[in-house]
Write a structure and sequence with these properties.
15 strands, 199 residues, 1 helix, seven-stranded antiparallel beta sheet, mainly beta
Length: 199
Amino acid sequence: MKRILVSALLLSGLMLAVAQVKKEDLATKNTASPGAETGVTINGKNLWIYYHAPSVRGRHIFAGAGALQPDGSVWRLGADYATVLHTDADLDLNGLAIPKGDYTLYADLDNGRWKLIVNKTLMASARHIWGVGVSPDGIREGATTDDPATELGRAALTMGKPSSPLETLKITLSGTGGARGKLLIEWENVTASAPFTVN
């Protein structure tokens, strides 16, 4: 009996390890926030982030009174479905250990001292998690975005300002030499970044 239980646990762990999010399942028909992705290969290991890229469209997005994303709120790091990180390798993201696999990403805006939230929840029943609020089928899901029980952890981001405002959200993964890389988030009048290492 013990042998069967151990075998079942090993098999389920293997299935989780090889399961991978399909980017096409994350696509929507929302042309105001089209699907976008960034990726990098470091030491033969692939990393990618799939997100939906909203535009400013005359709105006040961050910081201060009347902001679409108020100081201290949790943002889905994009629009529509939650933003997804896939990594073929274990990572160290600015001190946060991230085992290889798939995760959803959010940002805790923390009054201008942003932190990247790496969340373990990818699915709601048979479909992907809607980032914040109410999904198209009327299910409210925002609780997963600020629930420590569903998080792998949080990593501090280095804040800055772009040389000129960015109309459309842009997330970039890049290599910086050897096993090192950088995550960069840019939108409106804000940049947020963190170094990472591929282990």
